[in-house]
Fold:
Amino acid sequence: MVNVESEPHGSRRDREIVAARVIVTSPGRNFVTLKIETRSGVSGLGDATLNGRELAVAAYLEQHVIPNLIGRDAGRIEDTWQFLYRGAYWRRGPVTMTAIAAVDVALWDILGKMAGLPLYQLLGGRSRDVVLVYGHASGRDIEETSAEVGRFIAQGYRAVRAQCAVPGLAKSYGVTRMKNAYEPAESELPLQTVWSTAPYLEVVPRLFERLRADHGREVELLHDVHHRLTPIEAARLARDLEPYRLFWLEDATPAENPDGFEHIRRHSVTPLAVGEVFNSIWDCRALLERQLIDYIRTTIVHGGGITHVRRIADLAALHGVRTGFHGATDLSPVTLGAAVHFDTWVPNFGIQEYMRHSEQTDAVFPHDYTFRDGCLHSGESAGHGVQLDEKLAARFPYSPKQLPVARLPDGTMWDW
Ligand code: CS2
Ligand code: MG
Structure:
């Protein structure tokens, strides 16, 4: 029988969860954070941000999760995960799995702080010293986009995602004139945008032809289709992009239909990335086991936390698939901090998305990860190394926002 009073990371009494609360703040954009406090005074943070559905997750945590946490042993991370997953009955889905993720990450943070170890060490230690990242370049035309890619290369990025405006469309996914990162949730009700595939399929190959001509073949180039093509259109684009050696083509076609990726694989060797909208290993399974993709993007905040995403990464590794975590600015620095530790450990690491948060966001979420020479470096603080300045957070009240929707020119509802 284990003497629980002498365990290395405090006693059972020290680890008892005595309080948990949801903090919603909007330093430039909405974030939802769960803070779990133990009797020892050690607390942990988990990100619970789901862009456009923030209050749904906050309510799920406050109404259905937090009452079940009080009195639990914060050290029983796996059992808490199983309780929240199996005990929900209505399992999976983005709201449920984001809520579970927030609890999971907060408990891993507490464990690290109690053990005095950084999260990557709790997972098994360093597999690498630095974490390769990619930045987001965009432009209103090919010329401007290429200049933006050059700016990222000049900042030391070794990998850059490139998105350019689609001729004839008023708004294009991923294209922003904002100084900071692209923020798609810009209105209380969904902005209605128009999408047209034909001009898109024409401009993208020309964009990457120009990028290779301007910047050579060494820099890693990525592109996000954002779910907008049919399988055969995606196959055509992947084939047309082959001469420009992309690091990956992302969300080429809606991934609820894994068979669609058979078409792409039949016509092209352009590497494929999918998964930011997935929230469990069951969403990923077919694509991984049939090796229909090359990078899995399902990340900690929407994929059930470290405990579950670790299982997804292991399944991916069995099939030669690497991680490529989603890292948009609508995932808080708490997720980025936890992700950099995970990326530092995970054997089958691929790349980490790094859309820089605003200075306002970074002030609310002080952290110890750093960017240098195209890579992120995890800090050595215990836990995931991200804090929350609650006093400052309180100065930024929630502001309801939703993601846009897209229709074809004839009004047909499409995928944004
Ligand atoms: C995008 C995201 O970063 C990406 O790959 O797909 O910016 C996505 O549009 C947002 O996270 C949606 O909230
Ligand atoms: Mg994406």
